[in-house]
Every structure is written in structure tokens, then in C-alpha cells.
User: What shape does this take?
Amino acid sequence: MEKLLTQIKRHRRLLGGAVLLAVAFFIFACVWLTQVRGNGEKSRSWMINDQFSEFALIDDTVTQDFVCDRDLLYMGFAFKVQKAGDEGPAGVLELTLTDLDTGEVLATSEGDMSNILDTTEAYYTTLGLSQPVELTEAGERHYRVSLTAHYTGEGRLLVGYTPTANEAGLGLTVNGEATEGMLAILGVYAQIGGFVTKFYWIIALLALILIGAGWWLFTGQKCPLHRMVFCFVLALGILFSMVLPPYSAPDEQFHINQSFTLASTIYNPYLPVAQSQIHSSLRRPSDVDVIVQDGETTVFTWQHIAKNLLTTNSDPFTHTQDYDEYQVDSSYTMYWISAFGVLAGFLLRLGFIPTLFLGRLANLVFFAFLAAWAVKRTPVAKAVFAAVALLPMTLHLAASYSRDSNLLALCLLFAALVLDLAFGPRENIGWKQLILPALAGLLIVPSKIVYFPLALLVFLIPAARLGRYSKAVKGGFLALCLAVFFFSAGGQVILNDFVSGSTQVAAGAASSSVSSEITAPAPSAPESSAQSAASAPESSEETAAPQTEEAPVQDDSVCYTLPYILSHPLDTLELAIRSVVENGDHYVKTLIGGTLSYFDPGVQIAWTWVAALMILLVLAWLQPGFELPVWAKALCLLVGLACCGLAVLGCISWTPTYYTTIYGLQGRYFLPVLSLLLLARPKRLLLQTDCTRGLVYAVTLVDLLVLLNAFLSILAR
Assistant: This one.
């Protein structure tokens, strides 16, 4: 027994990892058994004709000629029962599907009529075909479907039809008599089959590898914290990108248009680089995919992407096409990284889907590198920086085309570099050490004006470290930030318009060159207006907090502009308070990652995981280490609150005055300054033991549970 205990103690690291993997595998297996395994029957259908106002008695045979441009796996009809006394129809209903042009029998089916529901209203009943009927080539195919009833009782069956045939109908015959009209027909053209199980276990296998590798890094104590963060962010980002593919992140369609347009201006030698109209986008001619661009991720989206992940492009080299699709704005500052990923896909002659993933991967790698660098450089609150970088919402944005991917990374790095200059080991700062933080700050300011207060962090740096030119350095940096903002596209116009009240400023839309032409978006359909989406995507997406108004008739252009706010302070205060009361849970979930994806209601994550992440975030906040002076904590807190206040003010400025809550506000707008807000902490509450590495690994494990939750949320659609 003593020898056994000695062996266990010697190999406890390996045994602990094995136990953890066994538990994780058991969880994945249970989820597969109870939630995933039975979803192979999921199918996609469309209504060949959904109109039926009359019913035809199937006394012998009913035939319908029609055209179809999709595969057929099942066919559904609107049946109704005609009883004879207490007896319903009994016997066999035979279906025959033939090629109308050649007369070839393509498929058959037989069903027991007693299984058809006896209800007062007609319902669609699907009949499986003996074999799938696939289109041999693009275009339409002419079919004839025959329904023949072989009765064994007195009951009869009726089938619904409309007396006016739609464009798919070629002719209807009821019991040998030609009839004007068309049957109500539902066609099933796709079935997921075993793909869901395969895809699930691929995700599960990658998650198990991450759990095992993460355990080894966590317990080994040799891997530095910043490298752990890099590995975890990269691995989790790839998994998030698989479950929530391109076009599923908030307003990602416009960000994709911006990145592809920038890449196209580099790719096509006849186009001026980084110059295009916001009202249109550039891509290669074949960069179109209806299923992926739909944005509503389903199991069929996963299947389609898997089938087309290795496709190539056959368009003429350097050839691009103009699409009538909006971009985000006229500034390309935050799109160069993803654009280079897209350009690589162009040069490698990859298809649309693999190119989409290359652009996402470029953003993710850039974010992981800068986030890890921020964790390495900050002299304080490393656990906070790491935890913020690993939140599900952060990962969701980092692994997307959203400009927030680059912006989040730059904000984390800028704060960490300034803190390092102010409180790091270096006593004397040379001009070389100032280049990187200055560059990061100058990239942040023109991208989103709401984060301009971050530039004030330079006042954290003691004058003694900068030498006799301290005031000149700080003043010069702030002056440069102002100059960059005012000379950026539309910066001065937006501020002037906001002050004058002639238009509204969306949170973060400081670089839009067409903002002066845009009015407030219609509240009943925030994404239906391409103009509002293009100029203010951050406040007009469908993941925004829902409004309770019904079909408003008020003027949407009358909003909470600065003059209105100053003249109606109580109304504005009431709007803010009601927003917190009614949508507080929404703001928390969109900050942490409890609501992911693009469309309403989005991918909803259980509050259990949101609460777990909040607890881990609090523990990261209370980790021991170097403490900032009180004045420095106060400055960081004020800067963070100023950024949050400007984000809220920006959303308020887009809110029509008849709204009861702030339009479009989300918690994710506060992510870039969350680490700054958490630098203000009471000394008395700090923990005695540093468990930063364990916290980082714990956040990673909860992220995997969030990912599993997201998978099941999409699966349930």
C-alpha cells in the first residue's frame, strides 16, 4: 500500500490529468447520448406550394405536375380525413414520383393511411421516398407526383390544393379529371444525417486535447503565464470560430465587406489601395455563398462549410467585382490584419469559405499575440488582463472580422505598456520605449472616439522617468491624438453635428465619412436600413436589447442629441435608469459572453456559466501583487468610466425620444476598458495566495462549457 501511495504521489500530475480527461470525456459522452445522437433526422424543407383553400377527394389517383430546382428527399402534403361513421381512412397510400419529360420512375413510397392525424384542420404529412431524387445539373426539373389510395374501409382521404396554381404548377388531375389548381406540396431537400455526431466529436476531441495540454502547462510551472494565455486564446478562438462561423458575429457581414474590399484594392492592380465607396463592396466574382452569408448558423451551415472548406477559386487572377453591399465606414485602420489574411486566400487561389477563415485566423493570431504581450508587460493585475482576454465575448470577437478584435488587443496592450512605463522596473525611459505605446494609442483614437480618454493614461508616467521633457512628451502625445482624430475621415464632422444636434453619433462610429447623411435607424427593423447599419453598426445590430414599442408612428429622427439632453435632463436620466432596470441582465451577458452571435435572440448561454465566469473574474481582481498608488487607481477608474460614459452617450444619441430604453447598448462596448476598471481594488480584500495560473486554466475550462452550450443552442434550432 505504501508503495502504491508513493507511485501515486510521484505521478500525481499525470494521474490528475487522466482523471480530468476522463471526467471531461464522460461529460461529452453524456451530452452526445442525450442531446446530439437523436438529431440525425434534422432536415431542411421549402414550400413548393403552401396555399390550399379547397380539398380534393382521393377516390383513386391524384396527380400533380410541377417544376423543382432542388433535390427531393421527402415530400409532404396537406391531408384531411373524411370519416365513414367512426372509421377513418384505412389502407395504403402509394406515392410515385416520375420524370415528366422521360417518364422514368424516380422514386416511390407507401404509407399507412391510418397514421394520418384526424383533426379539424389539415396538417402536412411527409412521405419518404425510396431513394433521393437529385438534380443532375443546375436548373429546373419537371416532375409528376401521383397519390394513389388503396382503401380497405369506408373512410376516405382528402388532399389540400389551391384553385390557382403558382409558377411551379404545371397541371393537376383529380381521379382522372383535369382540375385547375395545384396541390399544397412541401419538399425536403436536405437531411443532416450523421454529420452532427461527427462534427460534435471533432469539437469534443479538440476540447479534450486543449484540456490535457492546458493541464500540463498549468501544473508544469515552467510555461510563463503570457505563453499560456497565447495558447489558450488561440485554441479557444479556433473552437469558437468553428461553432460560430463567419457571418455569425455582431455585424460581421459589414466587417467582412470592409476586409474583403481592402484586400481587393491590394489584389487588383487597377484599383487605388484602401479607397472605395462605403455604399458598395469589392470581392472576387465567385465570393458569394447564400448559406454562409445568411448569418443564421444552423447544423446545415456547419455541414456546408465542412464540404467547402478546401475549395479553390477559378476566377481570373486579380479580377474583382463590385457588390451592392455596405461596408462599416470609410476608415480601414482596424482591417489591415484581416485583409492580409483575405489577400493570402486570394493569392493561394482558395475558395470563398477557406478565405473567410483565413481572415478570421489572422485577426485571432494578432489578438492572441497582443493579449499575451499585454499580460507579459503589465506590472500589475496580470490575472485581470488574462481573464479579460479569455472571456467568451472577447474570444467571440477576437475570432471574427469585427474591428473590435484588433481594437480590444490594442487597448489591452496600450494599458499594459503605459502601466509598465509608469510602474515597471525601468527608471529612465528613452524615446525607443515610447514608440510602441504611442503607436497603439494613435491607432485606437481614430478608430473609436469613445476610447479617446485612454490617451489620458500617459499621466500615470512619473515626470522623473521621462526627464525634463516630460510635459512636452505628454502634451505632444495628446496633441497627436487630437490631430489624428480630427484629420481622420469624418471625425470633425461627427463632433460638429453632435454638438449642433443635426444628426446622431453612434457609439464607436467616429470614422464614418457619411455620418452627416444618416438619420436614426428605424426601431422596428434596425438591420433593415443599410444606411444605419453602415454608419452605426455598433448600435444597430439585432443582438441589441429588445425594444417594447409597437409599430411607432413617431419621428425616428428626433433623438437624444446633446441639445435635447441638456434641455431634458430628467427624461434622459429616466431613460438611463429604465434601461438598467429592464436590460441590466442583457448588458451583463453581452459583456461576459452570455449572448453570442449576431441575430435575435442570438446564441443564449446559461446563467450558470455567466455566473461562474463572473466569480472567476472577481477572484482575478483580488489576486495579490504590486498595488498601484491610490491616485493611479483613481485615474484608471476615471478613464475607464469616461470611456463607458461616452459609449453610453453615443447609444443614447441614436435613441429616438419615444423609446423607453437606450437603443443598441451592449456590455461588450465596455470590454476594452474592463481591465482598467478592475485595477481599482481594496487592499484589505486581496487574497493571500497567488493562484493566477489556476484561474487562467479555470476560465479556459468554463469557456469550453460555454462553447458546448453554444453548440447545443445552435443544434436546437
In short: The first helix runs from residue 2 to 10.
